[in-house]
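for the writeup, i need someone to sanity check this before i put it in the appendix. the sequnce is what the collaborator sent (i think, or maybe the updated version? ugh). structure was predicted straight from it, no edits. if anything looks off just tell me and ill rerun, i have time this weekend
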Amino acid sequence: MDLEINGKTYEYDGDPEQPLLWVLRDSIGLTGTKYGCGIGQCGACTVHVDGVARRSCMTPVGKVAGRSVTTIEGLSEDGGHPVQRAWLDEDVVQCGYCQGGQIMAVASLLAQVPSPTDEQIDELHTNLCRCGTYYRIRRAIHLAAEYMKEKS
């Protein structure tokens, strides 16, 4: 089956029930998408499928054939996506393990809700941060929303 990952086409001939996470990491070599829990609870494995945040550990690769998948590596070529810029400007990262998934979830949220409320942002706490940088994450989301407004 053909997979479109970050704008490139990859041929995958393995088990269609294999979690997308392992195809991304082991078959394609995109290791920015992290394994956290394996049961879709932590969000470290979040990618976009047709622009919508999805847990790649729970998504069979066969379900994304013919669809567009974006990983943290494909969000921007130079790290200049508004969410990535805001993450740096607000110094969000502590250990960094969850941040790829956090950024992907936030980019999906802002594509749907350009000016989220704190309550809408708090719903993203399904993406877990062991270091507890939620306050900085919230500030970065508001800043990213401003960057996105400036961009358009």
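The radius of gyration is 15 Å. The helical segments are 20-28, 82-89, 99-112, 118-122, 134-151.
thx in advance!!
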